[in-house]
Amino acid sequence: MAGATKQRTAHDRAGLSDELRGFREVQRLAYECAETVAAQLRPGVTEREAARMQRDWLRERGVRDWFHLPFAWFGDRTAFVNFKIPLQFFPTGRKLEPGMPFILDMAPVYRGYAADIGYSGSLGLHPVQDRLMSDLRPHRELILEQVRERRPLREIYENVERLMTRQGYANRHRAYPFGVIAHKIDRVRERRWSPTAFGFGTQSLRGLAADALHGHREGWSPLWSPYRFSDHPPQPGLWAVEPHLGFRGTGAKFEEILVVTDSRDPGESAFWLDDDLPHVRRWAEEKAA
């Protein structure tokens, strides 16, 4: 942890400080929203209401654009049970019950900087999800280590999946469109009117499409998937990474920004943007205990 903090400080002293701080600010804002809304959840709240709570909280703090609007998943929907089509990801009337796990997921754009985060919790104790969250720690470590080794994204994806299998879990990010574990994010131009389409910000979608076109010409993709188009080394930039574990109808994940650079120094070639996040603090407390 200390090494990662030192690396961020070194980057702050370099020319990237303002940009990285901008992305870190919106990521922290999103996680603050998740923690605040999670603390307000009560029995009977629906997924739609939880999504609206996130949206309202962020709008009150100046968010006017989105990579995607907030999601909320309750119960077995945290593991994407029987998800077959993209529409099933959108919030429903499912009500939260005592002891039920939940995931809050949001991707706000703030002052032109984007973030995409995932927060896992439960209404009361849920030992299975607690174990899932603890077992996500080695995935964060594995991803960083292998990105620094410049292994192909497809190979890293497969190694993450193998670790999940050894742990006895199912890979639930395979249920996402294109089975992605991550996607690139970029700056977004600030505008007075920022429309959404099918829950996604049109400006962010255009940026992702432009990255896809540019990457196709150069042999890389902005989507980190198990498919051939991700069979290339990590592309420099910012990646929103979200390993998602499932076990018997319970799911858990984190999602945060990984910074990839073109540095030849392994320690500088990739680093997590921020180590002061809820899941990272949780693991530090578990280790200390």
Automatic annotation (TrEMBL):
GO terms for molecular function: aminopeptidase activity. It comes from the Bacteria. The keyword Protease applies. Keywords: Aminopeptidase, Hydrolase, Protease. InterPro entries: Creatinase/aminopeptidase-like (IPR036005), Pept_M24 (IPR000994), Peptidase_M24B (IPR050659). PANTHER family: AMINOPEPTIDASE, XAA-PRO AMINOPEPTIDASE P-RELATED. This is Methionine aminopeptidase. It comes from Streptomyces lavendulae subsp. lavendulae. The lineage of its organism: Bacteria, Bacillati, Actinomycetota, Actinomycetes, Kitasatosporales.
